[in-house]
Amino acid sequence: xxxxxxxxxxxxxxxxxxxxxxxxxxxxxxxxxxxxxxxxxxxxxxxxxxxxxxxxxxxxxxxxxxxxxxxxxxxxxxxxxxxxxxxxxxxxxxxxxxxxxxxxxxxxxxxxxxxxxxxxxxxxxxxxxxxxxxxxxxxxxxxxxxxxxxxxxxxxxxxxxxxxxxxxxxxxxxxxxxxxxxxxxxxxxxxxxxxxxxxxxxxxxxxxxxxxxxxxxxxxxxxxxxxxxxxxxxxxxxxxxxxxxxxxxxxxxxxxxxxxxxxxxxxxxxxxxxxxxxxxxxxxxxxxxxxxxxxxxxxxxxxxxxxxxxxxxxxxxxxxxxxxxxxxxxxxxxxxxxxxxxxxxxxxxxxxxxxxxxxxxxxxxxxxxxxxxxxxxxxxxxxxxxxxxxxxxxxxxxxxxxxxxxxxxx
Length: 410
Hints:
alpha+beta; SHC Adaptor Protein; 50% helix
């Protein structure tokens, strides 16, 4: 797909992006059609592997996949029962430990008492009567001693202590569960608050995006209808062909028709005049040719410009000097809402003077960055717009100010 360079030059960046998207869609469409046609003509046989691997599920007597869910069997304990069983065992172990520690404390106390009585200083290693002393001085291993001492523990006391410890463990677990539930509720409230803020932010973004789309749509509707339909023409092979198929805008039949149009429709709106001085604007020119505009702008610095009445459309042309000394020409379309550049998504201005003032700071196109800096006025007397104005007094005042308006910074 190919687009003529001069056609691309007439488009702004947004229209170029739309054109590139359309071209890319067409390329993808053609590529898919080519791939489908190629696969239809050259089918690829599917490879079959004899050593293919697979997974075979174990099935039960009913033919379904066998599975086991904990807690569903009649002999399975529930989670609460498992926790309670574990806590009972933990309570029993703690109770036994406390009872054993109590016995050891009594044993140490007995040792101290016997030591004060001098019994431990007697040397009776083989006497049966000193069996208690032998047990105290020659202690067996802990496991044997533990089992031996458990024989002297009161079972009722052990069960009572186990119940007390179990209740404490149960209360502690309930407290932890309650704190966990509170923490979960707090985290849930924070999450809901974050979700609410996220939804509000998302809704705000959607509103902004919708507003931007609406503004873009309205601005696109206000732009010239001479080029945008060509971008939507899907039947044309190229943009150039689409532009050729467009109906041409009405062209003035003669120079006198342009003069009559300006006098009847534009002069009453103050077009071409400076509202501050009520005199013709320093950049305003009459019906002059493109060659004449190039001659007036010759050797002028970048940013110099003039506005002339167009011979091609019912509107105007801004002739502008770029950095390399060449001249660009931008058509200004006259529409019911006001004035705008032809074929661009520019802002519509109520008056021509407002459009020129706006582009003293805002570029005409983002690519070219054309800022209107220096107005190039008249170089002859009477001025080239003499045939357009009906007031001879205005013409005389304008002619007297020609030297100061020949080259003026706005």
